[in-house]
Amino acid sequence: IMSPTVKSVSQDDEFAAAIKTMGDAQLRRLPVVDQDSNLVGVVALADAARERDPAVAGAALGEVTQPGGSHAS
Questions:
Q1: For residues 30 and 42, is the Cβ–Cβ distance under 8 A?
Q2: Span 39-43, average pLDDT
Q3: For residue 73, is pLDDT > 70?
Q4: Are 21 and 31 in contact (CB under 8 A)?
Q5: In what order do the strands lie in the sheet with 29-33?
Q6: Mean of the per-residue pLDDT values for the chain?
Q7: Is 2 exposed, middle or buried (0-12, 13-18, 19+ CB in 10 A)?
Q8: How many angstroms separate the CA atoms of 61 and 23, rounded?
Q9: pLDDT tens across 55-71, in order?
Q10: Sign of torsion, CA 2 4 10 14?
Q11: With a threshold of 0.85, does the pTM exceed it?
Q12: Which residues 6+ apart lie within 8 Å of 66 measured at CB?
């Protein structure tokens, strides 16, 4: 049911790095983990639109919605 490799970001990573990872991997949500790889949260494109610059979220969404990517069948 799950992808063999799960993309995530560290809780210490910059928000911009999380958004870039989401765009590159075509993900709408991204797990946030601590130094022991324990889940501490999830960042979503909607968070970027609400809390940050909507243009940044829009650019990432443009990449997420492109055909293909690692989750294409």
A1: yes
A2: 95
A3: no
A4: no
A5: 9-10, 29-33, 39-44
A6: 79
A7: exposed
A8: 7
A9: 666 666 666 666 665 55
A10: negative
A11: no
A12: 26
Strands 9-10 and 29-33, sheet pairing: parallel
For the chain, the first-to-last Cα distance in angstroms comes to 13
Amino acid identity of 5?
Answer: T
pLDDT at 36 over 90: yes
DSSP-derived 3-state class of residue 49: helix
CB-based burial, 23-37: b 16+ in 10 Å, e otherwise: bebbbeebebbeeee
